[in-house]
Amino acid sequence: MFVNFDERTAAILDGKWKYFKHKGQKLLFDLSTDSNELNNVSADHLEIVARLMKAVRQFRELSAAFRIDMEMHESRTSLNEEERRQLEQHLKALGYSH
Questions:
Q1: With contact defined as beta carbons under 8 Å apart, do 59 and 4 qualify?
Q2: Cross-strand bridge partners of residue 19
Q3: What's the average pLDDT block by block, 10 residues per block, for the chain (98 residues)?
Q4: HSE value, Cβ hemisphere, 13 Å, CA-based, for 45
Q5: In CATH, what is the architecture of 2-93?
Q6: What is the pTM of this model?
């Protein structure tokens, strides 16, 4: 599950892990042993932090592409060639298209 509050704040749950980013601060909690989120274990699990940070970036990029696509769809029913090419490139970069 992912929650995007704004550009500076986001949270993502992945199994027992909760990653929270707020104003540049990166927090990671192991909810299986710390349900009250009192012990930031990000320094001990850098690979998990990196993976969840990447997931946050990808979600935001996909959300932005989707918003752009929806805005274009609301104003007309098809994309021109340049818009289609840009959207395909963006989706390909995110791994959603081949």
A1: yes
A2: 12, 28
A3: 63 91 89 96 96 85 64 60 82 72
A4: 18
A5: 2-Layer Sandwich (3.30)
A6: 0.60
